[in-house]
Amino acid sequence: MLVLGIESSCDETAIAIVNQKFEVLSNVIASQILDHQKTMGVVPETAARLHVSKFDPVLKKALNEAGVTMKDIDLITVSNRPGLIGCLVTGCTFASTLGLIHNIPVVGVNHKLGHVYSCLLDLKEEIEFPVVVLSVSGGHNELYLINSLNEYKELGKTLDDAAGECYDKVAKMLGLKYPGGPEISRLAEFGDSKSIKFPDPLPHQKMNFSFSGLKTNVKNKIQEFAENGNLESNKANIASSFQYAINHNLSKKLLYAATQFNSNEVHLVGGVSANKNLRSMILEKIQKKNLKIKFRHPLNFNFCTDNAAMIALLGHLKLDNQKAQSVIIPQ
Ligand code: KG4
Ligand code: ZN
């Protein structure tokens, strides 16, 4: 069985084809990052208009790379929630039209769940349940418990900003490019992570997160350095100390949940899972505490950030209870 996934919930126009062994036959992503750098963030209407112009070439490329035609596709899945409404409408309209033309069922799926299961893509081994998943990206930040392939439970979430949003905003304050995560992580390598001690965010809620206070703390620190005329020489220290504070908080809460639920594996997914410092911090904490926990992150960078392979995967997992339908309503 082949599933064709369509993703356009934010600023990536993506189409992928995945088989029942969760092997990714093609994973085409047309990123709008360069368009949104001009505005230092995503302008929803610009993003929606760009999706419309990119679906056709992206579809052709995805079919070519997989070596298949629309006749070989058994199911179409499309992100229909959550996301920017104009962007979701374009994806759902494209998916529904494709389904009607080729007589293929279309199912709307949850983008956040796509991230949750993204470590399964191209994985050659079996997963050992239970698994605790930390999903961190620009728009969401949650902890999940997965007891089987089609059973998941949310354990905690951010009360305000997501970690990726915080990375992006701090980068903006430091005059860096969008998206801010990779920029902060590059600059952090030149700084000292112990030079500034930012307070640990929301320490008493073990599985919920809050990053708006940390954002304000960084803003105040930047202002303090600017007033003293030494901001430029301290930018790397700010990036490094901020990265330490946010990653320490994320990894601590992930491993707290893992020990509470006796999990055999922890998975780090979503755009922020590309952060090397966060990956090594999680591994260090597992080793330091002598925990028998396997750590996984998506096998490919393109499975960390928004992609359609994870959306196609959901078609195989049959997680969503929505029945196959040819009219998909964005939510
Ligand atoms: O999953 P994603 O592509 O989109 C959403 O669903 O939001 O995540 C994008 C987020 C951005 O906030 C970006 O700054 C962050 O992931 N990100 C990173 C890194 N690469 C991307 N954050 C920290 N370190 C990175 N290396
Ligand atoms: Zn996402």
Walk me through this protein's architecture.
With 331 residues, this protein is of the alpha/beta class. Helix 5 (163-173) runs antiparallel to helix 8 (235-260). The model is unreliable at 321-327 (pLDDT under 50). The chain is built from 11 helices and 10 strands. A hairpin with a 2-residue loop joins strand 7 (141-148) and strand 8. The protein has 2 domains: 2-118 and 303-328, ATPase, nucleotide binding domain (Nucleotidyltransferase, domain 5, 2-Layer Sandwich), CATH 3.30.420; 124-298, Nucleotidyltransferase, domain 5 (2-Layer Sandwich). It has helices at residues 33-37, 44-66, 85-102, 111-116, 163-173, 180-188, 212-227, 235-260, 276-288, 301-304, 309-317, and strands at residues 2-7, 12-19, 24-31, 75-81, 106-110, 131-136, 141-148, 151-157, 265-269, 294-296. Residues 10, 137-139, 164, 167-168, 179-182, 185, 270-272, 274-275, 305-306 line the site of 5'-O-[(R)-(carboxyoxy)(hydroxy)phosphoryl]adenosine.
Helix content: 40-55%
Which architecture of the largest domain would the CATH scheme give at its second level?
2-Layer Sandwich
| Unreliable spans | 321-327
CATH fold-level name of the largest domain? Nucleotidyltransferase, domain 5
**Total of DSSP H or I helical runs spanning 4+ residues:** 11
Q: Helix and strand layout, with pairings?
A:
Blueprint: E1 2-7, E2 12-19, E3 24-31, H1 33-37, H2 44-66, E4 75-81, H3 85-102, E5 106-110, H4 111-116, E6 131-136, E7 141-148, E8 151-157, H5 163-173, H6 180-188, H7 212-227, H8 235-260, E9 265-269, H9 276-288, E10 294-296, H10 301-304, H11 309-317
Parallel strand pairs: 1-4, 4-5, 6-9, 9-10
Antiparallel strand pairs: 1-2, 2-3, 6-7, 7-8
Helix pairs in contact: 2-3, 5-6, 5-7, 5-8, 6-8, 7-8, 8-9
The chain binds 5'-O-[(R)-(carboxyoxy)(hydroxy)phosphoryl]adenosine and zinc ion (ZN).
